[in-house]
Design goal:
Layout: E1 8-14, E2 34-35, E3 38-39, H1 40-49, E4 55-60, H2 64-71, E5 80-85, H3 91-97, E6 106-111, E7 114-116, H4 120-125, E8 134-141, E9 149-152, E10 158-162, E11 169-179, H5 180-185, H6 194-204, E12 209-212, E13 218-220, H7 224-237
Parallel strand pairs: 1-4, 1-6, 4-5, 8-12
Antiparallel strand pairs: 2-3, 6-11, 7-13, 8-11, 9-10
Length: about 260
Amino acid sequence: MTNVLDDVTAVILAGGMGTRLRALHPDVPKPMIPVAGRPFLYWLTAWLASHGLTHFVYSTGHRAQQIESWCDGDDFPELMRLYRREKEPLGTGGGLLNCLDLCRNYVLVANGDGLIMDGIAALLSLRHAAGVDGGLIGVAVEDAARYGSLAIGEEARLIGFREKVPGRGVVNGGLYLFRTALLHAHYCAGPLSIERELIPQMIKAGVSLRVVCPETAFIDIGTPESLSEAERFVKTHLRGICSHAEVQSPVSASAR
């Protein structure tokens, strides 16, 4: 049976504008775009819940009411689902820091438009690694031109982020783990990027972040091309995941 992670909050970054998909879905926030009969956010939540996560916070912004109404709905009655709306666009880092008062001791951060099929358990295990403050999942790809790549040092330590250049590399999978106290220590108000500002600040301050590099499938729905592949991806990789039979401690709630 999957262990319930009582010390971890999953923060889902769901406030982006989704400009590249606006022509296809002008009235729907990107995480709520239907995939295989459900909002994409449903599949992301189900997948994270299958790893024992029961406490979720959704950082909302663009067309926030649709996501918040979904959180208040009947899906996942066994989970605690909260949300926090941005008063202005805050970016990934600002959206995360805006949710800190709702979070437990550790924060698993996920982009609301992506799914990665392995590495979550290894990432969560960094909570027990001596001298490690957090980490992220990296994925090896043949061409990192679209994403940029990670600079990785000894013992899988994250050194920084490289610019987008063609060729094989390890790219950011969009899943992070941080101690909540660490995020409080690096708090600043206003717009902020996790990748361009928050993590570089941490690295400069000597924070130890590790990169977990599974061989795994992943997808983001940020472009029309990747969105067209999403239904096949979900049906291939998430069959049987919807029952949440292994999730414990049923509770339901929401917050504004």
